[in-house]
Design brief:
This protein is of the alpha/beta class. The chain has helices at 2-10, 31-45, 63-76, 91-106, 148-156, 159-162, 169-185; strands at residues 16-19, 48-51, 80-84, 123-127, 140-143, 191-195. The protein is built from 7 helices and 6 strands; from the N terminus they run αβαβαβαββαααβ. It has a 4-stranded mixed β-sheet. The chain has a two-stranded parallel sheet with strand order 1-2. The chain is globular and about 50 Å long.
């Protein structure tokens, strides 16, 4: 969702990426290298990063992890949260999705030991970063026109994952292609796909005229 992140940042919104883990071990990375790459990507996108310190390849939706993330939510006070899609074969992605939903709920607790004041996050959306051999069926497409190059550069900042690792080099091209495809569905240059399990308020009067959207 790098295009959406970049668009938020350019529009003046405060965006914080919460790194659940340090991403290691990987074939060509180290904790220090991954931290440097993440910092570079954040600078390209124009956003902040916060490390949560959970264990890569070992994320669990338990009370301890939920309290850590709920504390971060109460500190950051986000109005929107984006989480991995809950359907995946990657155990960390599945656990992270459930953990984020649980922490979102826990963040509003009163009479708790959590830091900060209770905080209610109005909307949670899921992005697609899946290892399933499937095609996303999104409920929302977000226009990212003008931000595709920023997204690509942010991804390539993770050189240990998408440059040095030859097996992953095509991933960047796949994401470019997906952006163009999803953009074509709503009549724009590029777009990113999201999913919401909750109802999302919409003002139909603010939508483009139907004859402006491809049929």
């Amino acid at each position: 969702m790098g295009g959406t992140i970049a668009r938020f940042a350019v529009a003046g919104h405060e965006v914080t990426l919460v790194d659940m883990t340090n991403g290691e071990p990987t074939p060509y990375g180290t904790p220090e290298l991954r931290a440097s790459e993440a910092a570079t990507a954040a600078k390209i996108l124009g956003v902040a990063r916060v490390p949560l310190g959970l264990t890569n390849r070992g994320i669990v939706n338990d009370l301890r992890s939920r309290a850590i993330l709920a504390g971060a939510i109460r500190t950051l006070k986000p109005h929107l949260i984006f989480a991995p899609h809950p359907e995946d074969v990657h155990p960390d992605h599945v656990a992270a999705s459930a953990l984020i939903e649980g922490a979102r709920f826990a963040a509003k607790y009163t009479k708790s030991d959590l830091p900060g004041e209770p905080w209610i996050v109005r909307h949670l959306f899921h992005y697609y970063s899946i290892h399933l051999r499937s095609i996303p069926a999104p409920t929302i497409l977000a226009d990212t026109t003008g931000h595709a190059l920023t997204k690509r550069n942010a991804i390539l900042a993770y050189a240990s994952q998408f440059v040095v690792n030859q097996r992953n080099r095509k991933v960047v091209d796949w994401l470019d292609a997906a952006g163009i495809y999803f953009g074509s569905r709503i009549g724009v240059e590029t777009a990113e796909a999201f999913y919401s399990r909750e109802c999302v308020p919409i003002d139909f009067a603010m939508l483009p005229l139907l004859d402006e959207v491809p049929g």
